Amino acid sequence: MEIIKMKQLLISQRDRKRAVEAIRAGDIFVYPTDTVYGLGCNAEFEKGVIMIKMAKGSGEAKHFSVIAPGKEWIWGNSVLSKENRSFIDTILPGPYTVVVKAGSKAPRAVVSDDGTIGIRIPRHPFSDMVREAGVPLVSTSLNLSGEEPVQSIKQVPDRIKAIANWAVDDGRLEGSSSRVFDLRGNDVKILRY
Asked: Which pTM value belongs to this model?
């Protein structure tokens, strides 16, 4: 697993371009967010999604959220009421996940059996690279199933190191898991606060 500092991705166009291309290509990443470290890959690459599920010990029943490359991606890949679209406009980017009805174009590997998808846009510079890549990135906390989320690259479990191509180190993250809102209906419901 190659480790690169977030600061380096902010100052080196060459390194940033390399990371953006790796996201598009389906590499598996450990990355920082505005909450905790995440683990992901291009959500359109089912093989990578399956590898992450196996490494985390999540099993086939677990569906991951995605970091959207932008709000236009959200509008094109979900079914939303006007009110809920406005709500998303207000809270994202930020430390939130919204659960919505998946549209027909949403990547099947991350759509739940009930036809929903969780979506985030963290308020973190790494999200800018996802936007540049133009693809949704799997978003799951960096931990093994049932364990606490990882706050430092030094804590990455060996099973994750074995599958991750990259780790973007942004130091110790002191956040907690994102707040989750259910936007499947017309009302906003809090699933995790």
From this structure: 0.91
Calpha distance 41→163 (Å, rounded)? 11
Beta bridge partners of 3: 167
Q: Which of 74, 81, 90 is nearest to 187 (CA)?
A: 81
**Angstrom distance (rounded) from CA 137 to CA 65:** 8
Q: What is the CATH number of the domain that holds 87?
A: 3.90.870.10
Mean pLDDT confidence for 59-76: 85
* Whole-angstrom distance, CA of residue 180 vs CA of residue 118: 9
Task: Specify the amino acid at residue 193.
Answer: Y
Query: pLDDT at position 120, please?
Result: 95
Cα end-to-end span (Å), the chain: 33
Per the CB < 8 A criterion, the answer to whether 78 and 179 are in contact is no
| Whether residue 152 has pLDDT greater than 70 | yes
Residue range(s) defining the domain that contains residue 35? 2-192
| Nearest of 43, 7, 33 to residue 133 by alpha carbon | 43
The number of distinct structural domains making up the chain is 1
Question: Dihedral of the CA atoms 106, 111, 116, 118 (nearest 10)?
Answer: -90
